[in-house]
Amino acid sequence: MRFMRRSSGASRRCRSIRVNGTDVPYRVVRREVKYPRLEFKTGELLAVLPKSWKDEAPLLEKKIEWISRKYEEIQRALDGFKALGGNGRDLLVFGKFFRIRENGAVKIDFGGTTVECNLKERRQVKRLRTILKERLLSEVEPAALEYSQKFGVNFNRIFIRKQRTKWASCSAKGNLSFNFLLACLPKDLIRYIVCHEVLHLKRKSHDGNFWEQIGREFENYREMEKKLFEYWFLVQEYSRLSPLKIS
Ligand SMILES: [Zn+2]
To answer: Which residues contact residue 89 at a Cβ distance below 8 angstroms, ignoring those fewer than 6 apart?
Structure first.
Protein backbone atom coordinates (compact mmCIF):
# COMPACT_ATOMS: atom_id res chain seq x y z
CA MET A 1 0.00 0.00 0.00
CA ARG A 2 1.33 3.38 -0.89
CA PHE A 3 1.22 6.39 1.34
CA MET A 4 1.23 9.88 -0.03
CA ARG A 5 0.42 13.07 1.71
CA ARG A 6 -1.11 15.96 -0.12
CA SER A 7 -1.49 19.38 1.35
CA SER A 8 -3.65 21.80 -0.49
CA GLY A 9 -1.91 25.15 -0.45
CA ALA A 10 -1.38 26.89 2.83
CA SER A 11 -4.29 25.15 4.51
CA ARG A 12 -2.96 22.80 7.14
CA ARG A 13 -6.44 21.62 7.84
CA CYS A 14 -7.26 20.08 4.49
CA ARG A 15 -4.99 17.22 3.61
CA SER A 16 -5.39 13.82 2.10
CA ILE A 17 -3.52 10.57 1.88
CA ARG A 18 -3.54 8.18 -0.98
CA VAL A 19 -4.73 4.73 0.05
CA ASN A 20 -5.18 2.05 -2.60
CA GLY A 21 -5.57 4.62 -5.36
CA THR A 22 -8.08 6.76 -3.46
CA ASP A 23 -7.47 10.10 -1.81
CA VAL A 24 -8.73 9.93 1.75
CA PRO A 25 -9.11 13.43 3.21
CA TYR A 26 -8.08 14.01 6.79
CA ARG A 27 -7.66 16.71 9.40
CA VAL A 28 -5.03 17.13 12.07
CA VAL A 29 -5.75 18.49 15.54
CA ARG A 30 -3.33 18.89 18.43
CA ARG A 31 -4.60 18.29 21.93
CA GLU A 32 -3.36 17.67 25.46
CA VAL A 33 -3.06 13.93 24.90
CA LYS A 34 -0.29 11.55 25.78
CA TYR A 35 -0.54 9.34 22.71
CA PRO A 36 -1.52 10.11 19.13
CA ARG A 37 -4.61 8.46 17.69
CA LEU A 38 -6.75 8.25 14.61
CA GLU A 39 -10.53 8.55 14.58
CA PHE A 40 -13.29 8.17 12.04
CA LYS A 41 -16.07 9.22 14.42
CA THR A 42 -17.84 11.63 12.11
CA GLY A 43 -16.96 9.72 8.96
CA GLU A 44 -13.98 11.97 8.41
CA LEU A 45 -10.46 10.83 9.26
CA LEU A 46 -9.05 12.83 12.15
CA ALA A 47 -5.47 12.58 13.44
CA VAL A 48 -5.31 13.64 17.08
CA LEU A 49 -1.72 14.47 18.03
CA PRO A 50 -0.01 15.43 21.27
CA LYS A 51 1.01 19.09 21.18
CA SER A 52 4.68 18.19 20.84
CA TRP A 53 4.14 16.17 17.63
CA LYS A 54 5.15 18.01 14.49
CA ASP A 55 4.34 15.47 11.83
CA GLU A 56 1.41 13.10 11.45
CA ALA A 57 3.02 11.11 8.62
CA PRO A 58 4.61 8.35 10.77
CA LEU A 59 1.28 7.70 12.49
CA LEU A 60 -0.63 7.51 9.21
CA GLU A 61 2.00 5.26 7.67
CA LYS A 62 1.87 2.90 10.58
CA LYS A 63 -1.93 2.71 10.51
CA ILE A 64 -2.47 2.63 6.79
CA GLU A 65 -4.03 -0.85 6.79
CA TRP A 66 -6.50 0.24 9.45
CA ILE A 67 -7.32 3.46 7.54
CA SER A 68 -7.92 1.48 4.38
CA ARG A 69 -10.23 -1.00 6.09
CA LYS A 70 -12.26 1.63 7.96
CA TYR A 71 -12.55 3.87 4.94
CA GLU A 72 -13.91 1.02 2.86
CA GLU A 73 -16.42 0.09 5.56
CA ILE A 74 -17.65 3.68 5.66
CA GLN A 75 -17.92 3.91 1.89
CA ARG A 76 -19.97 0.70 1.89
CA ALA A 77 -22.27 2.18 4.53
CA LEU A 78 -22.73 5.30 2.41
CA ASP A 79 -23.46 3.22 -0.67
CA GLY A 80 -26.17 1.56 1.40
CA PHE A 81 -27.49 5.04 2.14
CA LYS A 82 -27.79 5.80 -1.57
CA ALA A 83 -29.44 2.42 -2.14
CA LEU A 84 -32.04 3.34 0.50
CA GLY A 85 -32.92 6.36 -1.58
CA GLY A 86 -30.94 8.97 0.30
CA ASN A 87 -29.81 11.74 -2.00
CA GLY A 88 -29.68 14.71 0.35
CA ARG A 89 -33.04 15.98 -0.87
CA ASP A 90 -35.10 13.56 1.17
CA LEU A 91 -36.02 13.53 4.81
CA LEU A 92 -35.01 10.50 6.87
CA VAL A 93 -37.45 9.78 9.68
CA PHE A 94 -37.54 6.55 11.70
CA GLY A 95 -35.68 4.67 8.99
CA LYS A 96 -37.78 5.87 6.05
CA PHE A 97 -37.12 8.49 3.43
CA PHE A 98 -39.77 11.08 2.58
CA ARG A 99 -39.43 12.99 -0.63
CA ILE A 100 -39.09 16.75 -0.40
CA ARG A 101 -40.73 18.37 -3.40
CA GLU A 102 -39.17 21.16 -5.45
CA ASN A 103 -41.25 23.76 -3.61
CA GLY A 104 -39.98 22.47 -0.24
CA ALA A 105 -43.15 20.59 0.71
CA VAL A 106 -42.84 17.25 2.48
CA LYS A 107 -45.43 14.91 3.94
CA ILE A 108 -44.27 12.61 6.71
CA ASP A 109 -46.24 9.52 7.54
CA PHE A 110 -45.83 8.58 11.18
CA GLY A 111 -47.94 5.47 10.73
CA GLY A 112 -51.45 6.69 11.34
CA THR A 113 -50.88 10.42 11.41
CA THR A 114 -49.25 12.52 8.75
CA VAL A 115 -47.48 15.81 9.15
CA GLU A 116 -47.12 18.25 6.28
CA CYS A 117 -44.46 20.85 6.27
CA ASN A 118 -42.67 23.27 3.97
CA LEU A 119 -38.95 23.21 4.54
CA LYS A 120 -38.36 26.42 2.66
CA GLU A 121 -39.96 28.27 5.53
CA ARG A 122 -37.79 28.65 8.59
CA ARG A 123 -40.63 28.60 11.07
CA GLN A 124 -41.91 25.35 9.64
CA VAL A 125 -38.45 23.80 9.82
CA LYS A 126 -38.38 24.76 13.48
CA ARG A 127 -41.84 23.30 13.98
CA LEU A 128 -40.80 20.04 12.35
CA ARG A 129 -37.72 19.78 14.55
CA THR A 130 -39.95 20.16 17.60
CA ILE A 131 -42.32 17.48 16.29
CA LEU A 132 -39.43 15.09 15.62
CA LYS A 133 -38.03 15.69 19.07
CA GLU A 134 -41.40 14.96 20.67
CA ARG A 135 -41.91 11.86 18.55
CA LEU A 136 -38.46 10.63 19.43
CA LEU A 137 -39.03 11.25 23.11
CA SER A 138 -42.27 9.29 22.94
CA GLU A 139 -40.24 6.31 21.68
CA VAL A 140 -37.35 6.75 24.09
CA GLU A 141 -39.21 7.41 27.32
CA PRO A 142 -41.38 4.27 27.58
CA ALA A 143 -38.42 2.13 26.52
CA ALA A 144 -36.21 3.74 29.19
CA LEU A 145 -38.89 3.08 31.82
CA GLU A 146 -39.27 -0.51 30.69
CA TYR A 147 -35.55 -1.27 30.79
CA SER A 148 -34.93 0.60 34.02
CA GLN A 149 -37.55 -1.58 35.72
CA LYS A 150 -36.10 -4.68 34.16
CA PHE A 151 -32.53 -3.85 35.23
CA GLY A 152 -33.57 -2.48 38.62
CA VAL A 153 -32.10 1.00 38.12
CA ASN A 154 -33.46 4.53 38.25
CA PHE A 155 -32.79 7.30 35.81
CA ASN A 156 -33.22 10.96 36.51
CA ARG A 157 -34.01 12.99 33.38
CA ILE A 158 -33.98 12.34 29.65
CA PHE A 159 -32.52 14.85 27.22
CA ILE A 160 -32.68 14.89 23.45
CA ARG A 161 -29.84 16.96 22.09
CA LYS A 162 -27.32 17.30 19.32
CA GLN A 163 -24.33 15.05 19.95
CA ARG A 164 -21.44 15.05 17.60
CA THR A 165 -19.72 11.80 18.43
CA LYS A 166 -22.22 9.50 20.11
CA TRP A 167 -25.73 8.12 19.85
CA ALA A 168 -26.29 8.49 23.57
CA SER A 169 -24.64 9.03 26.92
CA CYS A 170 -25.44 8.89 30.61
CA SER A 171 -24.21 11.04 33.46
CA ALA A 172 -23.19 10.30 37.03
CA LYS A 173 -26.44 11.97 38.11
CA GLY A 174 -28.39 9.35 36.22
CA ASN A 175 -29.44 11.62 33.35
CA LEU A 176 -29.75 10.02 29.95
CA SER A 177 -28.95 12.01 26.81
CA PHE A 178 -29.92 10.86 23.35
CA ASN A 179 -28.71 12.23 20.06
CA PHE A 180 -31.40 14.07 18.11
CA LEU A 181 -30.29 12.07 15.07
CA LEU A 182 -31.85 8.98 16.62
CA ALA A 183 -35.00 10.30 14.93
CA CYS A 184 -33.46 9.00 11.68
CA LEU A 185 -33.22 5.42 12.92
CA PRO A 186 -35.72 2.58 12.64
CA LYS A 187 -37.56 2.12 15.92
CA ASP A 188 -35.97 -1.22 16.79
CA LEU A 189 -32.54 0.42 16.74
CA ILE A 190 -33.80 3.25 18.94
CA ARG A 191 -34.99 0.69 21.51
CA TYR A 192 -31.66 -1.06 21.28
CA ILE A 193 -29.75 2.16 22.03
CA VAL A 194 -32.05 2.97 24.95
CA CYS A 195 -31.48 -0.51 26.39
CA HIS A 196 -27.71 -0.07 26.06
CA GLU A 197 -27.71 3.30 27.78
CA VAL A 198 -30.01 2.28 30.63
CA LEU A 199 -27.83 -0.75 31.26
CA HIS A 200 -24.89 1.64 31.73
CA LEU A 201 -26.63 2.91 34.88
CA LYS A 202 -25.94 -0.55 36.28
CA ARG A 203 -22.74 -1.52 34.47
CA LYS A 204 -20.33 1.22 33.48
CA SER A 205 -17.99 -0.64 31.17
CA HIS A 206 -18.57 -2.72 28.06
CA ASP A 207 -17.29 -5.90 29.65
CA GLY A 208 -18.40 -9.49 29.15
CA ASN A 209 -21.27 -9.14 31.64
CA PHE A 210 -22.54 -6.08 29.84
CA TRP A 211 -22.76 -7.80 26.45
CA GLU A 212 -24.18 -10.93 28.01
CA GLN A 213 -27.08 -8.94 29.41
CA ILE A 214 -27.57 -7.08 26.12
CA GLY A 215 -27.58 -10.48 24.40
CA ARG A 216 -30.43 -11.59 26.66
CA GLU A 217 -32.54 -8.65 25.51
CA PHE A 218 -31.43 -8.69 21.88
CA GLU A 219 -30.36 -12.08 20.56
CA ASN A 220 -29.24 -10.42 17.33
CA TYR A 221 -27.25 -7.69 19.02
CA ARG A 222 -24.21 -8.22 16.80
CA GLU A 223 -26.36 -7.51 13.80
CA MET A 224 -27.81 -4.44 15.55
CA GLU A 225 -24.29 -3.17 16.26
CA LYS A 226 -23.36 -3.60 12.63
CA LYS A 227 -26.46 -1.75 11.47
CA LEU A 228 -25.76 1.05 13.94
CA PHE A 229 -22.21 1.36 12.67
CA GLU A 230 -23.51 1.79 9.13
CA TYR A 231 -26.27 4.17 10.18
CA TRP A 232 -23.78 6.31 12.04
CA PHE A 233 -21.94 7.29 8.88
CA LEU A 234 -25.11 7.49 6.87
CA VAL A 235 -26.59 9.87 9.41
CA GLN A 236 -23.40 11.96 9.55
CA GLU A 237 -23.63 12.46 5.80
CA TYR A 238 -27.36 13.05 6.05
CA SER A 239 -27.02 15.69 8.75
CA ARG A 240 -24.56 17.60 6.59
CA LEU A 241 -27.01 17.62 3.67
CA SER A 242 -30.35 17.72 5.44
CA PRO A 243 -32.60 20.75 5.03
CA LEU A 244 -33.29 20.42 8.76
CA LYS A 245 -29.78 21.79 9.34
CA ILE A 246 -28.97 19.44 12.15
CA SER A 247 -25.23 19.12 11.74
ZN1 LIG B 1 -21.86 2.10 25.89
So the answer is: 99, 100
